Amino acid sequence: MDNKEILTDSIADLSKNNFDDSVIKDNKLCFVIDEALYRVRMPNQGEQALTEQKRNLMQLEYLKQEGCITKSQLLVQLKNSGVVDIEKLEETKESLTKELKKFWFLLATKDSADKSKIEDYSEQIKKIQNNLQDLAVDIATYLSPCLENRLEKFYLEYLTTICTEQRIGEEWKRVWNSYDEFNQADASLSNKAIAYMTWLLLNRR
Q1: b/e map of 27-57 (b: 16 or more CB within 10 Å)?
Q2: Could you tell me the strand order of the sheet in which 28-33 lies?
Q3: What does the DSSP 8-state code read for residue 139?
Q4: Please, what is the average pLDDT of the chain?
């Protein structure tokens, strides 16, 4: 499965819950795979510091690699080669976001008796959200080779490694003891854990 498929599946998985942050309890988020109960949790200060240290060390490693490219360099290459203009995609994303907020406001202020308009606004919101999802996936996929995105990916994966736990009996036990174990794990579990960690970080309290 490539990065775009992983991102698409992760977003779809979260969408099943309508991005409802009410399922987050005490900065922890549970999910089930093959009848086993798992959770991701926010890192403590020590774990956060460790992850940032590992990211800094990984940055030094990436910079040594041939072909390492920064985001700004990649943006220029993508545009000059005619592959894609990320700035235009970002502008489209911003425009769609403003339009989405407009329809949210219209829906929130519409008389509940006007079923036709409510249905129309709801359909427009769904359409815009789908377009935004596609744009976000495309942008992330195009930018995945750059240094900044590689570091962001490593940071998220390392946090997920530390903060994913399984319910065994009456206890929560860490799933992976190392980043190497995480990388060798079943993708269905690691991808879902990453998706839920992303959601948890976005909705931290």
Answers
A1: ebbebeeeeeebbbbbbeeeeeeebeebbee
A2: 28-33, 36-41, 164-168, 171-174
A3: H
A4: 87
Residue 171 tokens, joined: 């206890």
Between residues 173 and 204, which one has the greater pLDDT?
173
In this structure, are residues 29 and 23 in contact, taking their beta carbons and an 8 Å threshold? Answer: yes
Tokens for 66?
Answer: 């041939």
DSSP assignments along 148-179, one per residue: HHHHHHHHHHHHHHHHEEEEETTEEEES-SSH
What is the per-residue pLDDT for 5?
A: 56
Name the helix (H) or strand (E) containing 140: helix 115-143
CB atoms within 10 A of CB 169: 6
Query: Whose structure tokens read 């946090």?
Result: 159
pLDDT band at 15 (very low <50, low <70, confident <90, very high): low
| Residue spans per domain, the chain | 1-70+155-205, 84-145
Does residue 39 contact residue 28 with C-beta atoms inside 8 Å? yes
Write down the pTM of the prediction: 0.74
Counting every residue, how long is the chain?
A: 205
Average pLDDT over residues 120-136: 88
